[in-house]
């Protein structure tokens, strides 16, 4: 460095009160991307330059110099740019170095007599989103998109409007006019109280990575806190799940959420659920209830069906991640909804995933070749089976405290049609064969938990096949849709499974039907049932005629049980 440059840099550093008084030059450089970006304020306006990471630093500095003299008057000839230098630890950076090497965190960029502190890949909050409606007593969880940061090391500050200040200013509590705010909470998730009804909420998120904090981002909820839904069907159930479980107990939940793609149709409002208040079928309302219900169960394993693809990414995954759960998603074939399995990250690590589409696996996987050959004798049933979009989600987890303890968790949603017993038998046969392959061959000897909406009551062939391990070719379900679609065959499987929650009177309760369709099947050789969380009372379920309702977000009821390793 020349003596003049050294003296100028030293003088500017003293003047700026290093480092707090300097402007910032934010550099975003991701190794997998070809370009890096340099963001800084030049000549009173924010500039962002995209440069090749392999480019020589000197060319980038020249571009910054040119940008510093840009003028809106195009006819004027460009003025010569100010000298631009990059320093690191008081020494000039070699201008032959690549941009990827040169732009280090903590470097100083000198543009004329202006000094910038370089922040390379600082924690950033690119997106902060809050629901449009919040209700007293229901948790509010922001949707975040962080980069170079994680929620665990970020700071969250919730504010609520100070009602007294609002009244003194002549505003109603919900007015967006003159507002004063008071801190209400420093957690990622905030649950407004009854006393907050009518007040507005605001959240400030400061992204962090454990060592640095980035620029804060603020967002206000669109409307004031609303009154809650009153007593819900799951409130009493939460009394049994107030504490997290500990090894060797595993709390497991299976729940069909009722996909929004099915709830938000004219057919749903007028034919399927005409008894349900229209606002209670809306996504925002139902998911207020769902977030509270699922978080209150404090599950270790959570298997969900009818999960909309966008709901998983925009609502469920962010909310449950805040409650300690990580999620996996499997879309049905050519559908907008599918399956999701969540696991408590303090208890489990994901080892592997083995998801399949049941129809596709039947034709493509040699594992099912014999069954496919037998089914080829029944072309109508085969065609119906291959047309179905049903999926099977299979995940293998290991205990975070004892990696030798692994478990296979399966999740499915079988064909729904009342006369589709024969198709459900074929689907479950493929599913059990695949689960056996994972639990007996890929991970020999690990226990199985098989959750789902099986669309089968305890009197059906599907249920007895899972429980007993065999189904005869003469079972009546093989002709459930008439002689033309029959497909008589005997089947078997070696898994020893039982229904952990028994056979409830119903897990699905709608206007024209109620029955037990959902199960948590467990490996009876390896797992015991510690407790089954009681179902809601019949009075609670029917308080608004049927499900869904203003107090229950789905047409199904969650199954919850605590399992214990033997």
From TrEMBL:
Main location: mitochondrion
The keyword Secreted is annotated on this UniProt entry: no
Gene3D superfamilies, alphabetized: Endonuclease/exonuclease/phosphatase (3.60.10.10)
GO function terms (MF aspect): metal ion binding; poly(A)-specific ribonuclease activity
GO cellular component: mitochondrial matrix
This protein's UniProt keywords: Exonuclease, Hydrolase, Magnesium, Metal-binding, Mitochondrion, mRNA processing, Nuclease, Phosphoprotein, Transit peptide
A Gene Ontology BP annotation from the UniProt entry: nuclear-transcribed mRNA catabolic process, deadenylation-dependent decay
Domain (Endonuclease/exonuclease/phosphatase): residue spans on this chain: 254-556
Entry keyword annotation includes Cell cycle: no
Cofactor(s) it depends on: Mg(2+)
Superkingdom to which the source organism belongs: Eukaryota
Family matches, as SUPFAM superfamilies: DNase I-like
Membrane-spanning residues: none
Pfam families: Exo_endo_phos, PDE12-like_N
Compartments, as annotated in UniProt: Mitochondrion matrix
Similarity remark: Belongs to the CCR4/nocturin family.
Record PANTHER family: 2',5'-PHOSPHODIESTERASE 12, CARBON CATABOLITE REPRESSOR PROTEIN 4
Annotated protein name in UniProt: 2',5'-phosphodiesterase 12
Species assigned in the record: Eleutherodactylus coqui
């Amino acid at each position: 460095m020349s003596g003049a440059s050294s003296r100028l840099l030293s003088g500017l550093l003293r003047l700026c009160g290093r480092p707090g008084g300097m402007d910032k030059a934010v550099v975003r450089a991701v190794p997998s991307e070809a370009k890096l970006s340099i963001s800084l304020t030049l000549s009173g306006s924010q500039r962002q330059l995209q440069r090749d990471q392999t480019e020589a630093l000197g060319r980038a500095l020249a571009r910054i110099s040119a940008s510093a003299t840009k003028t809106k008057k195009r006819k004027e000839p460009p003025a010569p740019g100010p000298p631009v230098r990059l320093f690191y630890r008081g020494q000039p950076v070699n201008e032959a170095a690549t941009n990827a090497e040169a732009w280090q965190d903590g470097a100083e960029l000198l543009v004329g007599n202006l000094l910038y502190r370089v922040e390379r890949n600082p924690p950033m909050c690119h997106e902060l989103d809050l629901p449009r409606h919040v209700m007293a007593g229901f948790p509010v969880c922001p949707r975040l998109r962080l980069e170079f940061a994680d929620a665990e090391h970020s700071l969250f500050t919730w504010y609520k409007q100070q009602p007294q200040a609002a009244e003194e200013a002549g505003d109603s509590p919900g007015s967006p006019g003159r507002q004063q705010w008071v801190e209400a909470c420093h957690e990622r998730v905030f649950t407004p109280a009854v006393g907050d009804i009518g007040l507005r909420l605001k959240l400030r998120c400061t992204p962090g990575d454990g060592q640095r904090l980035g620029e804060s981002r603020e967002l206000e909820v669109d409307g004031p806190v609303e009154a809650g839904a009153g007593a819900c069907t799951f409130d009493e159930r939460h009394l049994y799940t107030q504490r997290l479980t500990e090894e060797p107990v595993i709390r497991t939940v299976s729940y069909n959420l009722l996909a929004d793609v099915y709830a938000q149709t004219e057919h749903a409002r007028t034919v399927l659920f005409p008894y349900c208040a229209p606002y209670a079928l809306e996504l925002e309302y139902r998911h207020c209830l769902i977030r509270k219900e699922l978080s209150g169960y404090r599950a270790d394993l959570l298997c969900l069906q009818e999960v909309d693809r966008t709901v998983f990414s925009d609502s469920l995954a962010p909310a449950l991640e805040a409650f300690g759960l990580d999620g996996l998603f499997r879309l049905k074939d050519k559908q907008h909804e599918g399956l999701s399995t969540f696991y408590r990250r303090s208890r489990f690590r994901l080892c592997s995933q083995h998801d399949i589409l049941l129809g596709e696996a039947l034709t493509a996987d040699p594992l099912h070749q014999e069954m496919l050959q037998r089914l080829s004798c029944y072309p109508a049933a085969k065609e119906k089976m291959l047309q179905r979009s049903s999926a099977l989600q299979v995940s293998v987890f290991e205990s975070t405290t004892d990696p030798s303890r692994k478990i296979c968790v399966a999740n499915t949603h079988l064909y729904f049609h009342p006369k589709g017993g024969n198709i459900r038998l074929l689907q479950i046969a493929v599913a059990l064969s695949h689960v056996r392959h994972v639990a007996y061959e890929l991970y020999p000897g690990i226990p199985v938990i098989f959750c789902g909406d099986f669309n089968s009551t305890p009197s059906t062939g599907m249920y007895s096949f899972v429980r007993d391990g065999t189904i005869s070719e003469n079972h009546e379900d093989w002709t459930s849709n008439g002689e033309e679609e029959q497909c008589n065959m005997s089947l078997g499987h070696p898994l020893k499974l039982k229904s952990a929650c028994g056979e409830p009177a119903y897990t699905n309760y709608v206007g024209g039907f109620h029955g037990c369709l959902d199960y948590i099947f467990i490996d009876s050789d390896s797992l015991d049932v510690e407790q089954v969380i009681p179902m809601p009372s019949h009075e609670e379920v029917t308080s608004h005629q049927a499900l869904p309702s203003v107090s229950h977000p789905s047409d199904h009821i969650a199954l919850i049980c605590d399992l214990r390793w033997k």
